[in-house]
Amino acid sequence: MTLRDAAAAVRENAYVPYSGFKVGAALRTPGGAVFSGCNVENVAYPEGTCAEAGAIAAMIAAGETVIAEAYVIADSPDPVPPCGGCRQKLAEFAAPDAVVTLATTDGVEKVTSVAELLPGAFGKGHMDAV
Ligand code: THU
Fold it and tell me: Which of 22, 33, 25, 30 is nearest to 6 (CA)?
């Protein structure tokens, strides 16, 4: 299954009674395993989780820790950009040059990378003096 197919399929299951905005995300590990996730909202709005966070949680739960490539899809006018928090979450498990494809359900894609999404990222090295 392609990352696009996985992301589009899981997007259908998004629980979005508050925003109505369904997002799907899929990750591939270096070994080829694919993990997917959708956004899950909550009546206490800040408790909702993004699609990327769900896909990362599935990957970690399966015992994998490296994202080789990611794909995010939504029904948006332009390819959907991950929120700030999700950029940091992706950077935790992906190399700076890992490809991230942002997409619309209409088929428009924007190919970018973790480094482009999160320039100047806070990383482990910033805590070396601790
Ligand atoms: N959302 C995601 O799932 N991923 C993103 O990167 C952008 C935003 C979700 C969160 C919320 O359920 C809805 O989109 C509207 O913000």
Answer: 25
Query: How far away, in angstroms, is 51 Cα from ligand 1 center?
Result: 7
52 classed as catalytic: yes
Residue 129 identity: A
How many structural domains does the chain have? 1
pLDDT, tens digit (0-9, with 9 covering 90-100), for 25-53: 999 999 999 999 999 999 999 999 999 99
Q: Is the distance from the beta carbon of residue 42 to the nearest atom of ligand 1 less than 6 Å?
A: no
CATH number of the CATH domain containing 10: 3.40.140.10
pLDDT for 33 equals 98
Q: What pLDDT shows up at residue 1? A: 83
Q: What is the mean pLDDT of residues 69-96?
A: 97
- Cβ–ligand 1 distance for 48 under 6 Å, the answer yes
pTM of the predicted model, to two decimals? Answer: 0.96
Where in the sequence is the domain holding 55, given as residue range(s)? 3-127
Indicate the burial class of 118 (C-beta count within 10 angstroms; 0-12, 13-18, 19 or more). Answer: buried
Taking the centre of ligand 1 as the mean of its atom positions, its distance from the CA of residue 50, in whole angstroms, is 5
